[in-house]
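Cross-posted from the bioinformatics board.
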Amino acid sequence: MSYRDGHFQDLKVPLTWTVGVAMVVAAVVAVALLLSDRRETVQTGAVGATRAMADIATSPIGRAVSVPGRWTEQGADYVRDYFGTVSENRRLRAENTELRQWRSSAIALQDANQRYRALLGFQTNPPIPMTAAHVILDARGPFADTRLADAGKERGVEVGNPVMSERGLVGRVIGVTRGASRILLLTDVASRTPVLIDRTDARAILTGDAGATPRLEYLRGGDPIKDGDRVLTSGDGGMIPRGLPVGTAVKGLDGAWRVRLDADETSIDFVRILLFKDFSQLVNQQELAQPVLPTVPLAQRPTQAVTVTPPIAPSLAPPKPPVSATPAPTVAKPAPAASSAPPAKAN
Amino acid sequence: MALTAERLDPIHWVALPMLASMAATLLFCAPIRVHGLQLPEPLFALIPAFAWAVLRPSLLAPICLLALGLFNDLVWGGRLGMWALALLAAYAFILVTRNMMSGQSRIMLWAWFGAAASFAMGVAYLAVLIETGNAPSLLAVAGQWAPTVLLYPLADGLIGRFEDADPRFR
């Protein structure tokens, strides 16, 4: 039985009105979703779950779609290599000669650097573990610059992890699910990355605007930058490690300082996800949370007992009974003076 | 000789263009870069949005545009609801100006399609500007607008296929 022959055959609803109502309902749903979506934050709740499901569903399709693209890219590389071998060889010889000179300088500098570190007792950050991933979908529009990579929770990827290509920083993970993770590129309008200018140590915020060269905002200092300066991550805020290569400073047509990204010079099918959440993972949290109270010399003994509460959150350390600053009667000898105490070991 | 018009079947008129637009969107998301050049990223969903509004107002169209917009947001990783709102705005724009534009030449209809694309992207631009406080580059917007406008012949083909169809379905 068709719709026209059914019980509703005599029902006459003005088409314009029904379309209008349908449009208003659809628009309200769209606005509600838009207001509830907070893509820049850690994704939780229904919207995050929807995205995770969509990423799971699209990742096999993306994997299939990306294969011909990879073949095309490899084919083009092969043709370029075939026809450009002679010129490439000349260029590499010249580069090799230059690099030999740099190698000698680097060995000398490395030696000096190691001596200074030994003298200062300087501790470097431990190496950051990373995982490699294929890019399977790549969105490059003016309103969203993201990539979908085929590494997810099962490989330890978390929201906030920085992502690099073989040459430089690409972006950071904004969504992760089993088998896939969504990467927000540095060029996205929502992307903000703290960076520094290598030559002057001046700080700035790298702000994406959907163009190929993101803007440098909040540049501080007098004459902090010039054309060709190297731009690195500053590590401010603790979300991204310091010193990752980002790109080269260029003056934009609009007069603003911009960065030509190093990651643009490489192919886009492989990325490395640094399994780095923030600096807090580099230190022993339990040891850091231990309340270390200063020992009070007997000569400065207070007349009244004072109860000291450790200044830490209760969830970070096991509960302890209140500590009295008054020494117990069994203390046989006075504690050493505070000035003679050894300095705390830096982490 | 009796003329029998093709019935406006929702599968052919609504579902297939919608699925084709989704497939094309996914295909153009392939991570390909040859000599530094990447695939363009046109708004394929504007083809059915334009054709559905030009053919006749329909109850199904806004719902399908909502679904198409959400699909675009999820695949492109944008703000959920942004493209749905932009496509609905473009659909409303085409419906409102429909009487004025019907019967015009092909070039005028192409310009109308371009205006609808501008309207959709204008809404998306405002949504992003309000949410992030950061204006997307107009050059980047033009980089999506231009390939979208070039898709008009596909929308014209869809309209030509169904404009004489029996409108018993709505």
